[in-house]
Design brief:
Chain lengths: ~325, ~350
């Protein structure tokens, strides 16, 4: 049974005179214990999709989906409160700028303690206070922070960016989630700290069988840590498959371009030659092309591309393209 | 924190220096003899004038004159009032507490009404409650204070007869002058009619305090609303929602504290505005405060009074300013505690 099964999720920006379809019918499927990468350029709607899953989008965004199943229960049939209760119990999220995501006027300890699920506690309220404290310290140990007294007393601005991200992960672990959504957890971080955070996430995945949805704009960086990858472009679904399938045999011209643009993937590239890139840049939300949104930039685009392609499934390798590269391999 | 305190005290020192420079220069800018303007002795005999000349060193250079003026200020000698020929210092000691009382109570009133209303408006952003609160705030901000004061007297004291229209306390109560702040004096006194006097003083302060508080309260509504809206947009509120906290928990634990911090910074600024309004209101309600006294000395061309009133009121506003700065620093960990490693 799938952990998370989303079919044709659309997100519309309703402000202004004409609604803008920021995310256009994207499907996402996750299994238990899986690490899935969600890759795309900035502005391709990855963060929106993640925030829509957790349900923290503002009122100006309108979310529709054909199917939204969580461990077999259809969340679309439940009321808003029930859905929120299930999601906040089982799904946790960490964000891009950890320092901005911690309340600057509250100590780390308090923020950790309030995240601890009260269902894990027992006894009277004074006992619960002690248990909350103990649980907070335990959480800090789990994410590899040894000096917990020091950390608990600190305010967010007194810690480094990487420590703040660890605290964010600790807060996310407080509810013992089944799925952790990590929205570019290492953006604006040094590479040594990036490695630490990724290793921490990987160990959580292996030891606790926690599924992770890892959002990144950097395909190359993510491939070390993921089992499967979903690629998005400008709010549309591009391709999904195992990491090997995506990295070695991309079916979509966009994924091909992404892989080609990284020097690690094509070792055959002669020294000092130009890297392969697509012409142009990602379209802004006000001027989205019709049909396949990659159309104007795509080297393989033809007349049929003004119609949005249907998703085709080749042995678990899904691709959304009229002229996929499948036959070229 | 020590550096912070030294900085504020430094600022206080230099601002006071500039302020005294201004009042000192006023004595030259006002018509008449600078010496008479400074001392306020309009009917002085030639011998007395000679003595004054010595005391204020007006035959020496301008710097010596200024330092002589400063030493007079330091001794608490502000000269005589030109209108009544009494010591200004004693008049101010009698009058300033009433103004402090009125303006502080009005400030409290404005904060306790304005800030929660602003929060309610922000939480119900673009809904009926928000629109109602915003339009009331707009209305309250645009009503002129002298008109509001007169209408308040007309409705609440003449037609309805709920509150007295003038003064600080009914003449039947005899309260000893200790601190000058009426409520504290009443509580300190051992009169049998203490509690009746207390009730009477409360009834007297209701109308002027409400009139003074109206405009600042509307400003606080808008400040609170915009800072709450800004806080609700931040990432940490979103993260708190993702954490599974309820809306109530988010508002009371995170949003209120952060937006209050932004508002406290503005209280010092708003206080100057409030004191100006209080001065006009004191005239309308015959409140025995320094604002009414200052306006009267303007009418009577009491130059010494204008100088000293200016000095004292500005000092009061500035002290409140610095106190709010300290409160802000005490509440905000970002201003209070330095980053590790930066010290």
């Amino acid at each position: 049974m799938n952990l998370l099964d989303i079919r044709n999720l659309s997100i519309e920006l309703v402000s202004g005179n004409k609604p803008i379809l920021a995310v256009d019918r994207v499907s996402l499927c996750m299994k238990e214990g899986e690490v899935r990468g969600l890759v795309g350029e900035s502005g391709s709607g990855k963060s929106l999709l993640a925030q829509a899953i957790v349900g923290v989008l503002d009122d100006k965004w309108q979310v529709d989906a054909d199917r939204f199943h969580w461990r077999g229960t259809d969340l679309l049939r439940l009321s808003l409160e029930e859905r929120k209760a299930i999601i906040s119990k089982d799904v946790a999220m960490i964000f891009q700028e950890p320092m901005a995501c911690l309340d600057p006027t509250t100590t780390i300890g308090e923020q950790l303690e309030e995240a601890v699920d009260s269902r894990q506690l027992s006894g009277y309220f004074w006992q619960k206070r002690q248990q909350r404290k103990a649980a907070a310290i335990k959480l800090l140990h789990k994410v590899g922070i040894k000096h917990h007294e020091f950390c608990i007393r600190s305010y967010p601005h007194q810690l480094t960016e990487a420590l703040c991200q660890r605290v964010m992960i600790a807060i996310a672990l407080a509810t013992r989630p089944v799925l952790l959504i990590a929205d570019e957890p290492t953006a604006a971080m040094e590479s040594s700290n990036q490695g630490q955070i990724f290793r921490l996430l990987a160990s959580l995945n292996q030891l606790k069988n926690m599924s992770i949805l890892l959002i990144s704009h950097d395909l190359e960086n993510v491939t070390h840590w993921t089992n499967t990858i979903t690629v998005m472009y400008s709010g549309q679904f591009v391709e999904a498959g195992t990491t090997e399938q995506i990295f070695n045999h991309p079916f979509h011209p966009y994924t091909r371009a992404l892989v080609d643009s990284s020097p690690k993937a094509n070792m055959l590239l002669p020294a000092k030659s130009r890297l392969m890139t697509l012409p142009g840049s990602i379209p802004i939300l006000q001027h989205l092309p019709i049909g396949c949104r990659l159309g104007p930039r795509c080297p393989r685009a033809q007349q049929a591309c003004v119609q949005a392609p249907k998703v085709k499934n080749h042995h678990g390798h899904q691709v959304s393209c009229h002229y996929s590269l499948k036959d070229t391999y | 924190m020590l550096v912070f305190i030294i900085r504020r005290l430094n600022l206080f020192f230099f601002t006071m220096l500039l302020l005294t420079l201004l009042t000192f220069s006023l004595s030259f800018l006002f018509p008449g003899d600078p010496l008479v303007n400074l001392s306020g002795q309009i009917n002085a005999t030639p011998q007395q004038l000679e003595q004054l000349k010595l005391a204020y060193k007006s035959d020496q250079g301008i710097m010596q004159q200024y330092f002589a003026y400063l030493s007079h200020l330091a001794e608490g000698d502000l000269g005589l009032s030109m209108a009544s020929q009494t010591q200004i210092t004693s008049e101010i000691i009698n009058l300033l507490p009433a103004t402090i009382e009125l303006s502080l109570i009005a400030l409290m009133l404005a904060m306790f009404v304005g800030i929660p209303l602003g929060f309610i408006a922000a939480v119900n952003h673009r809904k009926t409650a928000d629109n109602i609160i915003l339009s009331v705030a707009m209305l309250g901000y645009s009503v002129p204070v002298f008109w509001l004061g007169l209408v308040a007297i007309l409705v609440f004291s003449i037609q309805l007869g709920w509150f007295p229209s003038a003064g600080q306390l009914s003449l039947v109560y005899e309260i000893e002058h200790v601190t000058g702040i009426q409520f504290i004096d009443i509580l300190l006194s051992d009169s049998v009619y203490k509690w009746q006097a207390f009730r009477d003083a409360s009834a007297h302060i209701v109308l002027p305090a409400c009139v003074v508080a109206t405009a600042p309260a509307t400003i606080f509504i808008r400040l609170a609303r915009s800072s709450m809206l800004a806080v609700l947009e931040t990432h940490y509120i979103k993260a708190a929602r993702a954490k599974g906290l309820t809306f109530r928990q988010i508002i009371f634990r995170h949003a209120v504290r952060n937006s209050l911090l932004q508002i406290i910074r503005h209280i010092g600024l708003q206080f100057a505005n409030l004191v100006t309004i209080a001065m006009i209101t004191e005239v309308i309600f015959s409140w025995p405060g320094i604002g009414r006294w200052l306006i009267e000395s303007i009418y009577q061309r009491d130059y010494t009074g204008i100088q000293s009133g200016l000095l004292v009121l500005s000092t009061f506003i500035f002290i409140v300013h610095i106190v709010t700065d300290f409160i802000y620093a005490a509440l905000n960990p970002l201003a209070r505690e330095h980053n590790h490693g930066t010290s």
